Amino acid sequence: MDFDSIITWFTGVFPKLLSQWFEALSIFLISLWDKSILFVAKTISLLVSFMEWLWLQAVSSFYGIASWYTEFTKETRAKFPEIIPDSILPFLEATPDWILFIVIPSLLTLIFFMALKDAADREAAKSKENDRVEPVIASPESIDSSSVTIDSKTLGFESKNFEDRSRRSAIQEAGSPLNNPALEAGEIERSIRQYLGVEKSFSRSNVNKSGVRIRKSGKALINPKVERNVLEVLARLVNPSAEPNKLELILKNRKLEAKEKLTVGAPGVRVPATPGPVLVKIIDLENRLKVKERLAALNIVSTDAQREVAMANSQLADALIENKEYLRAINLFEKSLEVLETIIKRNPNNTENLRDIIVSLNRLGGALEKIGKFDSANDRYNLGLKISQRLAEENPQNRQLQRDVWFSLNRLGDLRKNSGNLLSARAYFERSYIISKNLADLNPEYLEAQRDLIVTCTKLGETCPNHGWWAKALAICQGLKTAGVLPDADYWMLEDLNRRAVAEDSVQ
User: Fold this and answer.
1) What is the mean pLDDT of residues 330-350?
2) Does residue 47 have a pLDDT over 60?
3) Residue range 310-319: average pLDDT?
4) Which residues contact 398 (CB under 8 A, 6 or more apart)?
5) Does residue 222 form part of some domain?
6) Same domain, 170 and 123
7) Is 146 inside any structural domain?
8) 157 lies in which domain range?
9) 186's torsion region: left (phi>0), alpha (psi -120 to 50) or beta?
10) Residue 252 is assigned to a structural domain of this protein
């Protein structure tokens, strides 16, 4: 095949073929369009036919119902003279059928269901009220020890609030001590604690030949006086003929245990107490920490998992400080720092992780300050200040990093103020004032920056009186009020700052 034949084919044959292909495609598309139109038309026709049939069926059903309703009303009205008193009969005959046979039955049905709901609500409220009944231990004088069967009702645990099904089934499978009056008081006490849920772990008790009960000290969470009364009643229930001296020995031992639990010689020692919101929060955070530690152990190379462990330690430490458990909190803050230092070794320039270390150092310093270790707290604060200053110098436009420096300076100033060194405290507060003033001037619309400046002025007012710092703080606060950005929760500052500023002016 030569070049001329190729040109001839493209100029002569190919246009004819292209024209034929185009003509065939046009015929195909037109045929497809016609068939599509025909299909849509048939589909619409079928739908219209179906809707007509459905409408006819509905009309026919309606007429059937109407016919049945008419026959029903006629037959019912014909029976009225037989069952309705003559005094009411004229009124019913004058009432339209739609009111008599539709409206009135509907209202009666509604009233009936409302009455059922009201009865159910009253029953639920009564059941809830019963659930709040406190357990009452039966008096030993009212029980015949020869035929007594000690169960939950005998001991007064009739409330559903004290029926923990999982604990009850476990006890029954192992042979419940509550169903055996021959067992000693310690066994019954242990079961009662299980029912009440006042201990996490339980230990069995034994009575030696001298009649003295030997038992490991448990973490009792009930009042010692209540515990003493429970022991006394149980001892009489189990052995009404017990010698008084044996009973006194038991009660004396329990009293000594309670005294040991409630006597705290050093700060930060955890004392078993009645569960409250803080204790519940601590238990929840402890469980979360265990979960995060397990996840981190499964994924050692994950920085996020390790950071979660550090944050969980810090959160638990904060809750412990709230509960005045400073020693445990310090230990957890140090663990958090160890984890964060491990993370920093992998990525020493990560700003977020370095800021986490600053926060942990400041919190650890606060906990050390609580127990009087001012030198150790000062070291932690200074280390946090050095890190925050380095980050702020590397990122001078970062407002949060500048504020970290301000916060560390305030911590150091507060430490010196609390220890009585007002001159050194004032030096730190003056440095923090420069930072907060710059941030407030650069961000006049930023509320947090203005509040930081107010805080710094008040600190300088406390350490450097009669220099107009209270008046400066008052002017900033009044400016925020005038601009309409002062939160309602901060309005107390106006009165307080005004009182202090007036007092300072009167001294001058």
Assistant:
1) 89
2) yes
3) 91
4) 391, 392
5) yes
6) no
7) yes
8) 140-262
9) alpha
10) yes
